[in-house]
Amino acid sequence: MHGPMKGISVTLRFTPHLIAAVRTMSSTTVPPSPALLQPLNVPYRLLLGPGPSNVPPRIQAAGAQQVIGHMHPEMFQIMDDIKKGIQYAFQTQNPLTIAVSGSGHCAMETALFNVVEKGDVVLIGVKGIWGERAADIAERIGAEVHLLTKPPGEAFTLKDVEKGLSEHKPSLFFITHGESSSGVVQPLDGFGELCHRYNCLLLVDSVASLGGAPIFMDKQGIDILYSGSQKVLNAPPGTAPISFSEAASKKMFSRKTKPPSLYVDMSWLANYWGCDGKPRTYHHTGPITNFFTLREGLAILAEKELRLPTVTTVSVPVGYEWKDIITYLMKNHSIEITGGLGPSAGKVFRIGLMGYNSTQANVDRVLDALRDALKHCPKSKI
Amino acid sequence: MHGPMKGISVTLRFTPHLIAAVRTMSSTTVPPSPALLQPLNVPYRLLLGPGPSNVPPRIQAAGAQQVIGHMHPEMFQIMDDIKKGIQYAFQTQNPLTIAVSGSGHCAMETALFNVVEKGDVVLIGVKGIWGERAADIAERIGAEVHLLTKPPGEAFTLKDVEKGLSEHKPSLFFITHGESSSGVVQPLDGFGELCHRYNCLLLVDSVASLGGAPIFMDKQGIDILYSGSQKVLNAPPGTAPISFSEAASKKMFSRKTKPPSLYVDMSWLANYWGCDGKPRTYHHTGPITNFFTLREGLAILAEKELRLPTVTTVSVPVGYEWKDIITYLMKNHSIEITGGLGPSAGKVFRIGLMGYNSTQANVDRVLDALRDALKHCPKSKI
Q1: DSSP string, A145-193
Q2: With contact defined as beta carbons under 8 Å apart, do A233 and A298 qualify?
Q3: Residue A209 Cα distances to A50, A138, A201, B337, angstroms
């Protein structure tokens, strides 16, 4: 049996040794920093700069989810959802559509590393910082880099580009869609067709523009398009959507040398993202919670666009009869709105704001009328 | 004034046009995927594989924080905290200590891309998948790669490595500390000294081992050490700690060519992480919420180690007198525990479990005794 004295004696006997041991450790090891014992300080900021933008509560909640394995079937489902979400956001049917495990800059490298080989001729449209960066990366690859420059604030014309294409005969032309450094949106119609006529691939950076300015990858003949997660998609930074056309894939997968990077080698990433029809094998551990948040950002985009901008549906407030309110509006405010139709019958109002009627004044008018109706129409106890 | 008929007629007049417009759009554009209209599905899984591991609630909460700008002072403070946390976890005083914006594989590339130039001789210890990957990357750089192989399940000896160093005269030797593919921990004592005797830098992959098996970067003479966020540090994947010794920095910053990648170019990243004494400039948008979660993972590590493993402090339960409980334990269970000391006096019990007394049975015994004391000691109304 253990007596109390024994416990005490053990403590006393060991303590000087322990103190000595800790002293010895302190002199040769690195102690933990007091800064890390302070709580995490994240002040609230309204982010109206060129990105990142604030994250909606639904995406914050996705970022707080427990992690699952990067090779679990549910993770692959989420990655498949992301692929479809990017296809929608990019307006493309390219099977080779993924999210890179890094920032928009990492996607820029992914594009150039995979499609450009040493000695390839590359034409870079420079009208701000992004073109400069693309040129820097292409030079690191050992490409023959030619610059097509415009003063910041101006956009390239088809004529500008055709001159560059005919002069240099590049295999790739890089251009920025949303030049966030100067605030210019580059028109893209006709550039794909033009490049293809010169046997050249069109690479477009849409980090700052995607979802905010219209882009149609397939229709506009863009061969490689990438963006970031932290702008219009409203997810935290850390992932970057990218898509490759058939022509880009062909150039990429028939190259003679390996790309400079294993981390963003598209032959590995295509498999990891289930794009090559083979069973997925381990490449790297994807940023799991960033995939959750990117998926939600893309889902919000999909849902938003499913809401017809011309007809707004509003749930019938609990306790009210929908017909009473519609009748009240017509009788007292001379406004027609309608009820639901088919599966939404009895559940919603449908308020149309189209063409000539689509004005701020009419929005205010119908809202005032609805407020009035809710005051005067009979309401059952809930 | 608008009459009701006007609203109706507008709606009727516009509707066929709208339907036609939507039909035209459908045939040329990509619709949103129904999969994205399903809710995000993240099942709970206990992750006892080689990583990622489950994320504690505190880190989940950090992942749900609203984002702030990547160049805000509070962000730089968090990055400074991360640097100090990594210095502690790695046991290094290297100023060039940062987290890469990518997975552990991205850190592997960061190490090799920055320290190895085309034509450099590199020796890679291969005893599983990680050595193979390192060799793949070094070959992409254009290095002269030599392999030192061991069957999976075995570790390298100093003798093995010395043979390789004297035969090939490499400028870099790569070795995996925790070989998660075979379950082997590579002993590291003496390897740094040996490499330096042969004018060779020592690069160690500790993605699967950091925090679980002891590692002392400075003491063991490791020149480049990297890990991942998702193993012992318990943060979601997406960031990777890395540190460079003075000798590694010297080789890195006196290279003749630029590293293959701009994204992980350490001359840029050193500035972004405030390691070069110059004002920080924009390089890329770091994964902001991953920095929050990594910071918390490192903070937990720092706090844990500040808790002396030999003496456990327990808060005195509200409503009890600490002295009653200590007296009760001694009188009825022959167990000594003590109260607080100095600033903790009256607030905590101190329970020592050291040397001979540090057994599972004694933990159970003191817990049973405390339960008994809480039942029988006087408790004031709270």
Answers
A1: EEEEE--TT----HHHHHHHHHHH--SEEEEESEETTTTEEPP-TTHHH
A2: yes
A3: 10, 23, 20, 65
A49 and B62 within 8 Å at the Cβ level: the answer is no
**What would the 3-class secondary structure string for B35-59 be?**
HHHCCCCCCCCCCCCCCCCCCCHHH
- Across chain B, which distance is largest between two alpha carbons, in Å? 96
| Chain B CB within 8 Å of residue A77 CB | yes
For residue B153, give the 3-state DSSP assignment. coil
CA distances from A239 to A15, A271, B16, B101, B346 (A): 51, 18, 41, 10, 51
Residues 6+ apart with CB under 8 A from B367: none
Instruction: Please name the residue ranges forming H helices in A53-182.
Output: 57-63, 73-90, 104-115, 129-141, 158-168
Q: Average pLDDT of A301-321? A: 78
Mean confidence (pLDDT) of chain B: 87
Q: Sketch out chain B's domains with CATH numbers.
A: 46-53+309-376 (3.90.1150.10), 57-302 (3.40.640.10)
Report yes or no: B54 at the A interface, CB cutoff 8 Å.
yes
Q: Give the residue with greater pLDDT, B310 vs A373.
A: A373
Residue A204: CB atoms within 10 Å: 28
Beta bridge pairs of residue B184: B179
Q: Which strand (E) or helix (H) includes residue B62?
A: helix B57-63
Q: Is B307 annotated as a binding residue?
A: no
**From CA A346, how far away is CA A380, in angstroms rounded?**
16
Report the pLDDT value the prediction gives residue B311, as an integer from 0 to 100: 67
Neighbours of B345 (CB within 10 A): 10
Reported as a single tens digit per residue, the pLDDT across A226-269 is 999 988 788 999 999 999 999 999 999 999 999 999 999 999 99
Q: Do residue A66 and residue B88 have CB atoms under 8 angstroms apart?
A: no
What's the pTM value of the predicted model, to 2 decimals? 0.79
Whether A255 and chain B come into contact, CB under 8 Å, resolves to no
Tell the burial category of B4 from Cβ atoms under 10 Å away from its Cβ (0-12, 13-18, 19+): middle
Contact by Cβ (8 Å): B161, B127? no
Percent helix, strand, coil in chain B, to 5, is: 45, 15, 45
B252 alpha-carbon distance from chain centroid = 24
DSSP string, A17-51: HHHHHHHHHHHHSPPPPGGGGSPP--------SSS
Q: How many A-B residue pairs are in contact by the CB < 8 A criterion?
A: 348
- Which secondary structure element, helix H or strand E, spans residue B114, and what is its range? helix B104-115
Non-local CB neighbours of B272 within 8 Å, separated by 6+ positions:
B98, B280, B281, B283, B284, B286
**Which ipTM did the prediction report?**
0.77
Task: Count how many Cα atoms sit within 13 Å of the Cα of residue A83 in the half-sphere of its side chain.
Answer: 19
Give yes or no for residue A208 having a pLDDT over 90. Answer: no
Which pLDDT score is estimated for B17?
Answer: 39
When pLDDT is averaged across residues B232-259 and rounded to a whole number, the result is 95
Q: Is B166 on the interface with A (CB under 8 A)?
A: no
